[in-house]
Amino acid sequence: MEHRPSAGDAAQPIYLDHAATSPLDPAVRAALLPWLEERFGNPSSVHRHGRRARAAVDDARDQVAAAAGCASREVIFTSGGTEADNLALRGVLERWGAERGRHLVVSAVEHEAVLATAQGLAEAGRADLTVVDCDRRGRIDPAAVAAAVRADTVLVSVMLANNEVGTVQDVPGIASAVRARNPRTLVHTDAVQALGRLPLGLGALGADLLSLSAHKAYGPQGVGALVARHGVFPAAQVTGGGQERGRRSGTENVAGIVGFGVAALVAQRRRETDASELSRLAGWLTDLLTESVPDLEPTGDPAVRLPGLCSFVVPGSHSDLLLAVLDELGVCASAGSACSSGAPVPSHVLQAMGFGELAGSALRLSLGRFTTGAEVETAAELVRVAVARVRGGGGVGAPIR
Ligand code: PLP
Question: Could you tell me if the CB of 365 is within 6 A of ligand 1?
Fold first, then answer.
């Protein structure tokens, strides 16, 4: 299997960047491919091709709903996590802003899809914004969120699991603290990193809205969903033909949605097995690295972590150089969030956590369903070599010591 290499080299690198994107699960690929080949049809068409496409989208909706612990009609398919987050923030503000107020509360560690959207709305004068700080481990205190909620707070958005440092937030605690303060305030959680790794459930989490993305859970890129509790109806941000019951227009990405459905099904079935294996391997990798790399500091919360995500700051190195050397040695890693320019910028998450300049030395190694123990062992040794090389003033192409 091409995504199951046994040791790092340039031809078969060890892929430890699953938090950026994951390879397709074989079952996803098998379900999706026919929709790029012999099967086709517009789900809105009344003829047999259309009806078959509609049935496939409906099945996928049921599968995503089962994984998200919600009703099928509560799933709105989108082009991914970013659009789901935008629909939650912009759609809620547009629907209820005039009636309930236009104050938004978000955490300082949100993905840019939430943070930049909220900041953009505030800069444009369309919302008031409060950003709630975190502690050194990236945790958001439910009491601090509740304290930020006002009579005119229309939406609170706090992510379930952080994509850079893996800290898992107490979303149920946050949701109930928010409701106690203002029962009309809606709660959104970005659960993009959590599908297949943490238990999801709109009710159990206490959220009104929840964002998902297929490609973080062995599904295809460019498809995701916003789950909106029944009765919570964000204003459509993509208008037109009225697909997704008027909440997101545009001909459905049938192949992508079918793949997402199977990815969600596999995620739900395998979650406990995957999560315990990912936690075991990630714990081992963290131990190997803290023993072998002087001064390396794990980041995030060791107690409540996203299974499979290891994150560190590496004093005396810079992320961009370290990642380039690791790539040369055959380890695909990242600094934290994937920036569209490809150049890591110092992480706003680590800065919010109080790491200051060390934020520029972040290293994230995120494991996946197909990561093996042999890969973990090899990667740990290659990271040790790469850090030594960067700290010693060497770069890409320098001799291995
Ligand atoms: N939210 C989180 C926490 C993420 O990690 C990501 C992807 O990096 C997104 C949102 C955006 O999702 P997508 O890539 O599907 O637009």
Answer: no
